[in-house]
Amino acid sequence: MRKSHRVVAAGAACALAGLALYSAGAATAGQSTANSTHEPYNIGQLVKDIDTYYGTTADANGVYQASPDSPYAEDLAHLDADAKRYIDKAARKAHRHGEKPAVVFDIDDTLLLSLDYEKRYNYTYNSTTWNDYVNRADRPAVFGSPELVRYAESKGVEVFYNSGLSEAQRTAAVANLKKVGADVNLDADHMFLKDKANPPAYLGDCATPGTWNCTTVQYKSGTRKHIEDDLGYEVIANFGDQYSDLDGGYADRTYKLPNPTYFVS
């Protein structure tokens, strides 16, 4: 992705129910009180909490997987159930009014889970190892997400993808999405990836050929604006694991999927 503005595990503590910081003077197990500082949450304990949240286990091949019985899976199940109810209602309303409803999905950790990469590289990012990992095209699905893609299609909703993956990673992304069952509209007209060499004109001044200055929000909201204003769709829902996937408008409703392992500004 993605992750040029990425803050890793320590910065992700806020995602875990108030565990991020202890206030000054508050003692914790094995820690002395602080007089004037705010001691960050211990990173070793944070990693344990992340593993507990995902129910992280290594399979027979040594690949780290999330557990279908984990709190992570439970949170996703609640989100997917709400999203399906909403899509059904919003799609029927849009069709009655002669509109063309659409949904937009991020890919990394919205449709394809990167937990094995995060664990294997201790929640750090390197462009070479990340590219190799993406190009293997064997990431597992984020629980429930391929089903949600197919559900939207079944309701007559156009499915689009809006990802920070690069144009050079398109083949691997398509292959991986097919492998997990999200085989809906995987053509270039529906899957928008970063093309820094030849950026689309609709992104405006922040992206010109050979020069990319778009923030994540500018890139993603600009793409949604293109889907609505230029392609004529009404984006009824936008799904992402980062707030930067969702900010900037051009979606009737947003769904933030859980991800305590990194932050993209």
From TrEMBL:
Pfam families given in the database record: Acid_phosphat_B
Signal peptide range: 1-29
Keyword flag Ubl conjugation: no
Family matches, as InterPro entries: Acid_phosphat_B-like, APS1/VSP, HAD-like_sf, HAD_sf
Keywords attached to this entry: Glycoprotein, Signal
Entry protein name: Secreted acid phosphatase
